[in-house]
Amino acid sequence: MTPDYLPFHPDPKKPDYVPPRGAVDAHCHVFGPAKTFPFAPERKYTPCDASKEQLFALRDFLGFSRNVIVQASCHGKNNDALLDALRTAGDKARGIAVVGPDITEAELQEMHDAGVRGVRFNFLKRLVDDTPKDVFRKIVDKIKPLGWHVIVYFEAEDLLELKPFLTSLPVTVVVDHMGRADVSKGIGDPSFQAFVSLLRDHENFWTKVSCPERLSVKGVPYDDVIPFANYLVEQFPHRVLWGTDWPHPNMKSHMPDDGFLTDIIPMIAPSEKQQQMLLVENPDRLYWAD
Ligand code: 0GY
Questions:
Q1: According to the model, what pLDDT value does residue 284 have?
Q2: Residue 73 Cβ < 6 Å to ligand 1
Q3: Residue whose C-alpha is closest to residue 246's, from 206, 280, 210, 275
C-alpha cells in the first residue's frame, strides 16, 4: 500500500435516508484482491484491497440496489477484477472499463456481455500518463457501435483546453465529480459557469454530483459542496448521476463515512422526483436500457 494511503471506512453509519427501490450507486470501484488481480505496473498509487464482496455488502447496507463499477487507474487497462465483479453481480451491476486503441471487437463484445457500457478517459496527471487525443478518438470509434458512452475525469482548470476535444465526441459524455469544481469560489464564478455551459450547450453531457469529500475545502459536513451539487440537479435533472466513490482512493485529509455521504442525497436532490431521476431513472437509461 502507498505509505500515506487511507483505507476505506471500517464501520459506516446506517444512513437515515432510505434510497428509492432500484437505486444505483453509479461510481464505485473494486481493488484487487491483489493476490488474484494484481495492480498495474504503471499505477501511480497502491490501494488497499477492496473486494467485490465488500462492495456488494456495502451496497446492501446503504440501501442501494445496484452499482456502476468504474475501472480505477491502479488497475490500468487490465479489467479482470472489474469483469469478475460484474459477472458475480449479474444484473445488479454495470461497468466502465479502461481500454487501449488496439482493443478488438471480440474483446469489447465480451466486456459488453459482462455488463460494461462505457470507457473512462482519465486526464488527471497525478493518476495517469498523458494519452494523445487521437488514441481516445480511435477508442471512441470502436465503442460507439456498441452504444457505449465515455466517462471523463479532469481538473476544473483543464476544461478550457479539453473542451474542443470533449465536445467533438459523438457519444454521451459523463463528467466525473462535477468537473472537480473549485467550491471556494461561488456558483456564479466563471470557472463553475464554464462547466455549467458545457452541460447547457451540449445535451450529450451528463455529470456525477459525487465526491463532496474530495471537493470540500471546509471538510465534514461538506456544506460548501452541497449548493453546487444541488444547482446541477436543479438545472439538469435528467443528466445527473450519484455515487459513493467507495473505496475512496487517494483521500488524504480524511476517510468519508459512506452512510453520511448517503444522507447528503436529499440535500442535493430535495424532491422525491429528483431523487428518483438521480438514483433510478437516469442510471437506468444510461446503463440498463438493454
Ligand atoms: C475516483 C477518484 C480518484 C481515483 C481514480 O482511477 C482512479 O484511480 O479515479 C482520485 O484519486 O481522485 O473517482 O475514484
A1: 98
A2: yes
A3: 210
Residue with cell 463484445: 109
d(CA 74, CA 130): 15
- The class of domain 24-287 in CATH terms is alpha beta
Test site for ligand 1: of 25, 28, 73, most ligand atoms within 8 A of the Cβ: 73
Distance CA 69, CA 183 (A): 26
Atom of ligand 1 nearest to the CA of 29: 14
Q: Which of 190, 193, 210, 196 is nearest to 269 (CA)?
A: 210
Cβ 210 under 6 angstroms from ligand 1: no
176 lines ligand 1 (CB under 6 A): yes
Q: Distance from the CA of 70 to the center of ligand 1, in angstroms?
A: 9
Q: pLDDT band at 20, cuts 50/70/90?
A: very high
- Distance from residue 155's CA to the centre of ligand 1 (Å): 12
- How many helices (H) and strands (E) would you count in the chain? 12, 8
- Dump pLDDT digits (tens) for 112-129: 999 999 999 999 999 999
DSSP-derived secondary structure letter, 189: S
Q: From ligand 1's centre to the CA of 198, what distance in Å?
A: 22
pTM of the model: 0.97
Residue 249 Cβ contacting ligand 1 at under 6 Å: yes
Express each pLDDT in 244-259 by its tens digit. Answer: 999 999 999 999 999 9
Whether omega before 227 lies within 30 degrees of 0, making that bond cis, reads no
CA nearest neighbour of 25 among 278, 204, 266, 255: 278
DSSP 104: -
